[in-house]
Amino acid sequence: MTLQQENRRLSRRLAVVALVMFGFAFALVPFYNEICVALGLNSIERADAVANTQVDRSRTVTIEFDSNTHNLPWRFRPLQGYVKVHPGELTTVEYEVVNVRDVAVTGQAVPSYGPQRAGEYFQKVECFCFTQQTLAAGETRRMPVVFVVDPKLPRDVNTIALSYTFFEVAGRGGKS
Amino acid sequence: MSAVVHDHGHAHDDHGHGHHGPYGGIMRWITTTNHKDIGTMYLWFSFVMFSIGGLMAVGIRLELFSPGLQFLDPDRFNQLTTMHGLIMVFGAIMPVFVGFANWQIPMMIGAPDMAFARLNNWSFWLLPFAATLLVLSFFMPGGAPGVGWTMYAPLTVQMGIGMDLTIFAVHLLGMSSILGSINIITTILNMRAPGMTLMRMPLFVWTWLITAYLLVAAMPVLAGAVTMTLTDRHFGTTFFNAAGGGDPVLYQHIFWFFGHPEVYIIALPGFGVISQVIPAFSRKPLFGYASMVYATSAIAIISFIVWAHHMYTVGMPVTGQLFFMYATMIIAVPTGVKVFNWVATMWKGSLTFETPMLFACGFLFMFTLGGFTGLVLSVVPVDIQMHDTYYVVAHFHYVMVAGALFAAFAGVYFWLPKWTGHMYNETLGKWHFWLTLIFFNMIFFVQHFLGLAGMPRRIPDYPLMFETWNKISSLGAFGMGLAQLLFLYIVIQTIRSRVPAPQKPWEGADSLEWTHLPTPVPYHTFEVQPVIK
Amino acid sequence: MKVSKLISALAALSTGLLALSASGSAHAIAWYFQTPASKMAAEIDWLHQVVMWIILVIFVGVFGFMFYACWAHRRSVGHKAEQFHENTTVEILWTVIPALILIMIAWPVTKVVIAQKDTSAPDLTIKVTGYQWKWGYDYLKGEGEGISFVSTLATPREQIEGKEPKGEHYLLEVDNEVVVPVGKKVRIIVTAADVIHAWWIPALGAKQDAIPGFLRDIWFRAENTGTFRGQCVELCGKEHGFMPIVVRVVSSDDYSKWAGEKKKALAAAADDPNKQWDVKELIARGEKVYAGICVACHQATGQGSPALKAPALAGNKFVVGAEQGPIDTVLNGRPNTAMQAFKQQLSDTEIAAVITYARNTWGNKASDVQPAEVKARRK
């Protein structure tokens, strides 16, 4: 092979590496999501498969409820500040949402946990965060969250904060 | 090639090296495919950018001289901070070493030119165009983006059109680096003179080989990150927006996956220059050549697994913090090996302290100091207190300015005779060194105190307890800026001097450009490849 | 160049520097960590000192060799270069020994890292929300739960612009301080409403990025009473340097007192939004709100500031036009400008008052705005 041919061959290979790395940056997006799911962090959102487990009455975990809205014309609050539960015990709480605008608005709730790693052990059977919620003008709605705390929750965690942030979903009648 | 017959072996005219391209004047520079011409353009470009970035730094330090807002509104201040960083990193410190690569690599390996001479030209000319875009962003509605050179989301989504210009400029700058790196790797791997095995290459060539691989792997990732920022801004994507299932922290991961190898991209060629200069002025071979190659390779490889030490406070799980801390501490080992090897090269040598050696010793002392503050920062609990304070600013200026920039100065003084055929004024060179050293430390040593005491980064105004160190730092900045005018004078004076330099002005220099080529170098160097015995 | 000249130049420089530092001596010349007020901050300080000593020893060792070589191995004193360039034993030693030193550092550090993340069993939980450019605090659980307020920089604009002398706590003072009891474990849940901010109190050793859409938690336990100050530490836009944090640590009794009073005060401040106000009273109330918040950008003369891109309110058609225009602007701010949203920070009454004031001052004349109208437009 002449020098010129060798040079071209090597440079083609290096160009491929550059392109692959560009693709790698985009691949980091699903990769990052998978890692978060695997570590139980910020996992959006599907119902967790909950096996029937014994209720562990030997310990109590406090679940605190928090709410935020992000540029959304809704009033959003938990109906209880906190509950004390036993791991393995199915519990239902409710959040209330009020659409104070005079048009229908659609939102998506995104949960977040403190401490982050507790999210892995917080299994939601039913949650308004699984789907987008559309509220008519002026509508008030109470939405349940049904959950179980996995008994495998590390012993040193006895408080979990569950926070939802409601974001507006554009193009569904609200301001985008 | 021109049709005129020239004697290629002995090149130069009386007034600098002649050239054989079809054009003269400005067209010569626009169309040149000669690695020396292109190297010269990179060096001058980087000096211009260094001056512009330096003026911005002076503006920043002027505002920070006293508490209160005197000259700049906070928005403009953030814009200056951002552009100072982008211009210095992408416009000054990276191109200066590409300039060295272009000038030196073909000469040091016995090659006639770079593998892709025309691609080399394009790689350069992308830069002034990209730099113009960056500077132009100041004049857009909303001004330049005020987001820091790290351009975190979602703050970037709030910026005006200056942000888009900047993103475009970053793409072009990255393109230039990637193309240049492909050129460098191909040249080094395929075009060495017979007898020059990889383990006989000068260390400067090794460091550029490794750096070029880092560039090819890391720059495209930055391109990905800013592209995602662009689409989040304009095309409805939500990569970094929780509303759509995204995460602002994802941006940080992608950016720093590029960002950490980037700092080694900046540092490694500087290491290479130092590895040429210290042996030459110690009149002794580099200590531990093979370990230097392995250590540099180890640094490059490990640099890909430490990125999140820039993110200890985002709230990542403990295991993440611990992993990145351990990996970062490990990088200290090969870096230490290199420092010890340089000192061991000097040990029991026969030392003289011309300007290149002064800058090399200054590098050795102060890069190591910066490396140590890096070790302090790698300790997670300590970093919790130091993150986003002036301690970090002090750390990276020590390694990038007292490190990489001093290495660049050392290289310029070292090779200026070879490039221009004239000796620089040694007395003035020493003045430049001492002024730069003193004023640099005046600016940045006190910033460690500011960070420890709790002064955050990127603020235009500060509580009163930070006043004293800020004043000292600002005075140092004014001094350091003026000292660089001396450097400009020295370089121009050298180019225009009438006193020829000897072929080998440095007794201890032994690489091919000193032993096998005249001074100054002819326009076409190794038309016939030397054979290395 | 003569050595004597160099020495006199250095002497002049040092004298100048000393004089300079003396000029700042009215304020303590801060150069190290602030006095720790929590065990965590004290541990961090200790770890830092350990690492610094190790570094210092290595530094002096290595550069002792280098400076000795610079002195004794100069060609000008006749030293001839030896040509060795390898020594396997030495090279192995100086690879292995630093690695061991690093392991020695990593061991005690690891314990602190793990402890910093342990937010379990708090006595008090406070939610912190970062806004552009202020902090919101909600006492979620523990004594004082239900207390909720916004904390804004209290340093007057005149001090920042140099028109007045700067106060002692310049840029480190707020209108509503975070108050916590001493000796109790406080868990801070951090989030943000717009861009990334970061919450930090150096004396307590607690720092956490505030990420919009996500919760992060940290904790601290203050060992001493006192007032501890910090600033936002993540670039968040124009006023990043102007959103400080103040935590006042008090005894348990004082805390109970404060919690009771604060709840009462907040209830009182939540003026009945259905009350019909007399215009003159509204304007008087509005003038106070304006002086505290709006004057920074829109100026006391209502002329605005081109430099700050704050429009003039005097003679401004939008201001005196349809009421919902100014109401919406004050409630929600204007995106991509420095006009913040004040819906969290100001009550319906305060907003109605300040708008009425702006609509009826500097030559402006327009209808008043009542709190009920603001409430109706509230998002």
Structure summary, number of beta strands of chain C: 10
Largest interface: B-C, 103 and 108 residues
Range of helix content of chain C: 40-55%
Cα radius of gyration of chain B in angstroms: 23 Å
Question: Uncertain segments of chain B of ≥5 residues (pLDDT<50)?
Answer: 1-17
Topology:
The complex is a heterotrimer of chains A (176), B (533) and C (379).
Chain A: H1 3-39, E1 61-70, E2 74-78, E3 82-85, E4 91-99, E5 105-114, E6 122-127, E7 133-135, E8 140-149, E9 159-168
Chain B: H1 25-31, H2 35-63, H3 74-109, H4 117-136, H5 161-190, H6 203-234, H7 248-282, H8 289-302, H9 318-346, H10 355-378, H11 380-386, H12 390-420, H13 426-453, H14 467-496, H15 512-515
Helix pairs in contact in B: 2-3, 2-4, 2-14, 3-5, 3-7, 3-12, 4-5, 5-6, 6-7, 6-8, 7-10, 7-12, 8-9, 9-10, 10-12, 10-13, 12-13, 13-14
Chain C: H1 3-23, H2 39-72, H3 88-116, E1 124-131, E2 134-141, E3 148-151, H4 157-160, E4 178-181, E5 185-192, E6 197-201, E7 206-210, E8 216-221, E9 226-230, E10 245-250, H5 252-269, H6 279-298, H7 317-320, H8 324-332, H9 348-359, H10 371-377
Parallel strand pairs in C: 1-5, 4-10
Antiparallel strand pairs in C: 1-2, 2-3, 5-8, 6-7, 9-10
Helix pairs in contact in C: 2-3, 6-9, 9-10
Task: Write up what this structure looks like.
The complex is a heterotrimer of chains A (176), B (533) and C (379). Chain A contains 1 helix and 9 strands; from the N terminus they run H-E-E-E-E-E-E-E-E-E. Chain A has one helix at 3-39, and strands spanning 61-70, 74-78, 82-85, 91-99, 105-114, 122-127, 133-135, 140-149, 159-168. In chain A, the strands form 2 sheets. A 5-stranded mixed β-sheet of chain A has the order 3-1-9-5-7, with no helix packed on it. Chain A has a 4-stranded antiparallel β-sheet with strand order 2-4-8-6, with no helix packed on it. Chain B is 67% helix and 0% strand. In chain B, helix 2 (35-63) runs antiparallel to helix 14, helix 6 packs parallel to helix 8 (289-302) and helix 13 runs antiparallel to helix 14 (467-496). The longest helix of chain B has 36 residues, at 74-109. With 379 residues, chain C is of the alpha+beta class. In chain C, the strands form 3 sheets. Chain C has a 5-stranded mixed β-sheet with strand order 3-2-1-5-8, with no helix packed on it. A 3-stranded mixed β-sheet of chain C has the order 4-10-9. A two-stranded antiparallel sheet of chain C has the order 6-7. The longest helix of chain C has 34 residues, at 39-72. Chain C is elongated and about 95 Å long. Classes of the chains: A alpha+beta (176), B mainly alpha (533), C alpha+beta (379). Chains B and C meet through helix 3, helix 7, helix 9, helix 10 and helix 11 of B and helix 1, helix 2, helix 3 and strand 7 of C.
